[in-house]
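User: I'm curious whether this sequence folds into something compact or stays loose and floppy. Could you predict its structure so I can see for myself?
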Amino acid sequence: MPNFELRKQRLDLSRLHDECERNYQRLQKVPFDSAKMGSLAHLNFPQKPNAGLSIEVIEVTRYTSTLNIKADQAGPHWMPQIEIKARVYRDAKMLEVIEWCTDRTIPWDLSEEKGMQARDEKWQWNIFLSELLIYGLRHGSALAKA
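Assistant: Here's the prediction. I'll summarize afterward.
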């Protein structure tokens, strides 16, 4: 097998970890406590009254927290509600997507066949989460509930 095909098949873990670290840094800018069970933050978008990004802590352990992140009407009108579960690793300072949508497929027609995932789909979802967080931080006004 040619060398370029081998490189194409490998996953780039350092790229994934870098994105997870950047997502953790972005999450730190959202005014809520990710280490407290039930903590909730909601980012409203003034230019889209029915749109929002909500982040809720649904599980807390000694070193991690699990977040449920929902984006409702935050993107184009044809985009469905996005629901992502992400894990915060407080000691490693990383935020990693662990589950996306209920059927694990990208919600628009750019993905492979239904049920098939691209080799770098986890990285793609972490990039998507970073875009959601960036958009929310730039354009949203935060409401936090402890």
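Summary: Strands lie at 40-45, 48-60, 64-72, 82-89, 94-100, 141-145. The two ends are 55 Å apart (CA to CA).
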